[in-house]
Amino acid sequence: MIIRVATEQDWTDIYPFYAAIMAEGKTYAFPPDQSLEEARPWWMEQPPGRTVVAVDGDVVVGSAKMGPNRPGRGSHVATASFLVDPAHQGRGVGRALGRYTLDWCRAEGFHGIQFNAVVESNHPAVHLWRSLGFDVIGTVPEAFDHPQDGLVGLHVMYQRLR
Predict the structure, then answer these.
(1) How many CB atoms lie within 10 A of CB 4?
(2) Which CATH class name applies to 2-160?
(3) Mean per-residue pLDDT for 101-119?
(4) Would you place residue 1 in the very low, low, confident or very high pLDDT band (cuts 50, 70, 90)?
(5) What separation, in Å, do the N-terminal and C-terminal C-alpha atoms of the chain show?
(6) What is the 3-state secondary structure (H, E, C) of the chain?
(7) β-sheet bridge partners, residue 51
(8) pLDDT in tens, 30-88
(9) Gap between the Cα atoms of 157 and 139, Å rounded
(10) What's the longest Cα–Cα distance across the chain?
(11) Spatial CA neighbour of 23 closest among 13, 35, 8
(12) Separation of alpha carbons 63 and 5, rounded Å
């Protein structure tokens, strides 16, 4: 598996699992039922951000987007979001994308990285981010309407990079 910067042509490979994950409604508060073109700006970052893909052979198995969490005086803290094609989960794709993102953020000079909304019932993601050095610095109670679990919290997770 390699991780590389996503091209515009990669979007058509990312979109099917993007759409499936958004439709499932368990991990992101993004709008469901977006068309290919409606969803593109939600995932394909523009500079100074970046979108990458994890590729196994010719198959895109995951993607991440990263960049400043806020503009201006908040731009020294990064943020990122991750998608792993459900057909390829459990193979370390998320961990590889997470490590890539941390390395990129350090190289770009970010002071820290903040995840604004990690669904607290998404135990695999919470475990992964903790194992990569993130701390839960707060939880917004009942901020996410999970299709099975009902109203659950959203963790704010942070890691200092410098």
Answers:
(1) 11
(2) alpha beta
(3) 98
(4) very high
(5) 28
(6) CEEEECCHHHHHHHHHHHHHHHHHCCCCCCCCCCCHHHHHHHHCCCCCCEEEEEEECCEEEEEEEEEECCCHHHCCEEEEEEEECHHHCCCCHHHHHHHHHHHHHHHCCCCEEEEEEEECCCHHHHHHHHHCCCEEEEEEEEEEEECCCEEEEEEEEEEECC
(7) 65
(8) 998 999 999 999 999 999 999 999 999 999 999 999 999 999 999 999 999 999 999 99
(9) 9
(10) 41
(11) 35
(12) 9
Residue type, 59: V
Cα–Cα distance, 66 to 38 (Å, whole number)? 19
How far apart are the C-alpha atoms of 33 and 94, rounded to whole Å?
24
Integer Cα distance of 121 and 105 in angstroms: 26
CA atoms within 13 A on the CB side of 71: 1
Q: Which two tokens stand for residue 11?
A: 């979007």
Dihedral (Cα; 116, 122, 128, 134), 10-degree rounding = 30
Instruction: Provide the mean pLDDT of the chain.
Output: 97
Amino acid at position 70, single letter: R
In the numeric block, the tokens 């390395």 are attached to 103
Length of the chain: 162
Q: Domain ranges in the chain?
A: 2-160
